[in-house]
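ingest -> validate -> predict -> emit
validate: passed (alphabet ok, no gaps, 185 aa)
predict: started
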Amino acid sequence: MPTSSAVTANVDTATAAQYNNLRTDVLSTHTHDGTDGATVAASALPTTVSGAHTFSGTITLSAGTFATQAQMEAETADLPVPAARVRNSPGVAKAWCVVDSTGTLSSPSYNIASVTDTGVGDASIVFDVDFSGTVYITLGSISQGTAGLGVDFSGHAAGSVRRRIATDAGVLTDATCSHTFFGDQ
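emit:
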């Protein structure tokens, strides 16, 4: 069983709506220890209140009512999802970034460890968290606004991918490009 953690919620003379929103926020967004099946024991809070209410107390989280990684991947759970577990849904981008025309990784980015400019129009993108295999979706969008350029991804490894930008004639060229990656991690 995971180690319990606590969140303290203090509300002074809250309306019923404010209290119920606070309760929902605390129960559905509290970061726990990451153990699959981490649960919420909310006995310290009444389910709902009406009228004005004053509350001061602690909610203790332990194991059992959050969606597990397997449930998120299969999209079978109708349970609260901790923020760190959202990335396990198949429809959520697992990594994204913008690489400018000089080959520099722009900020912000998500789950990108590094980008190496390996030549004109050629770059290697390395992920912070690897994909589970070599089959994942790669999308590229050139933001330069120049017609006749295309983005090609090759060399799919679990932890990296090669990206090339070329003209219709196949000549490699530098351009700013947005990248998005979907797949199982």
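Residues 5-88 form one domain.
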